[in-house]
Amino acid sequence: MSVPEEALRKALSGLLKPEQVTEMKEKNGKVLVTVAVDVPMGEKPAFADQVKTRLREVGGVKDVFVSFAPPPRAAAPPAQAHPLPGVKHVIAVGAGKGGVGKSTVAVNLAIALAQEGMKVGLLDADIYGPSAAIMTGTSEHKAQGDAHQRVVPAMKHGIRIISMAFLLPKDQSAVVWRGPMVGKMVTQLLTGVAWGELDYLVVDLPPGTGDAVLSLSQSVPLSGAVVVTTPQDVALLDVLKAIEMFRAVKVPVLGVVENMAGFTCPKCGTLTPIFLEGAGRKAAERFDLPLLGTLPLDAAVPPGGDRGSPIIVEAPTGGTAQAFREIAKGVRTRVSEIEKEGPGQFNLEWSSGA
Ligand SMILES: Nc1ncnc2c1ncn2[C@@H]1O[C@H](COP(=O)(O)OP(=O)(O)OP(=O)(O)O)[C@@H](O)[C@H]1O
Ligand SMILES: [Mg+2]
Known about the structure:
- There is one protein chain.
- The chain is an alpha/beta fold.
- The chain has an eight-stranded mixed sheet with strand order 8-9-5-10-4-11-12-15, with helices on both faces. It has a three-stranded mixed sheet with strand order 1-2-3.
- The chain folds into two domains: 5-73, GMP Synthetase, Chain A, domain 3; 87-341, Rossmann fold (3-Layer(aba) Sandwich), CATH 3.40.50.300.
- Helices cover 34% and strands 21% of the residues.
- Residues 95, 98-104, 126, 131, 207, 259-260, 295, 297-298, 301-302, 305 line the site of adenosine-5'-triphosphate (ATP).
């Protein structure tokens, strides 16, 4: 560190207790500080500003990145013994906001992994609108129980699929669920299912609150999370929100997927950037996470999804399908890297040259 850590910590002494500053890193004047403090969500930006102001007063500091860790008493209880012994890796797909393509990524990633020879399950945990079931063409599937009273997943496109859509009466599909009920339902969907042997169980998370993430992480150990973003998210606040959501429950983020990154001409295949070019890379660099892939805005994605034929099945030789295969490779690599690093590792080291 070129700026002494002691000086940085001292600058925060009137604002935070020493034990509330859980991480302090600095490189070339860029400071990464993690604070474990109980601040309501809406007040976090103002609190982060106070931290930034104090740290910027220290000589040599050019930029400050503040991250919030959960205060010790809010830490998630450790997950129980693995309730799904046949499932090797559970991967969550999430985002800081709705509509960025979580379900699209979860579905196509699951199928891409299966096409690589993996045994794969897909859990559609979005009980507000089970779009993964629609995208895989399984929303009409009728759930059956096995001899152990567990629900048998549907099988489609080479993957095993469970969705709330299989269990809810049709007229209840638009039911508004309270947070704790979301969590309970997710746990039931996860553990009450005869998944059998799986290499990967991909979980499509609902938008919004961390309830589903919290109950998921309390029900089963997660190997990691994929964060989906779009280039419009200039401030990167949503990416940070998603990263914080996973950090709070000690789930390592495998990387960032940038979706709808440019327009592919259906006639000539040329890719035209529409929003910010390289926004996904910027997000990945900012938070020092790998960019798992960039997906173009592809006019063939929505109709395929509506028909239950995901793009990777519908147009397997196209650029979007290829991008999904790259993402699947990246996920597998990251999962094995994190496995080697051991549990509880967060990839927040500064990348070289940052
Ligand atoms: N790369 C893409 N190109 C074109 N359309 C896309 C792309 N990715 C997603 N879409 C479309 O955008 C819409 C939202 O995608 P999706 O349902 O996957 O998002 P989501 O993040 O799961 O949304 P929610 O927060 O509601 O769960 C869908 O109609 C989908 O078909
Ligand atoms: Mg969705």
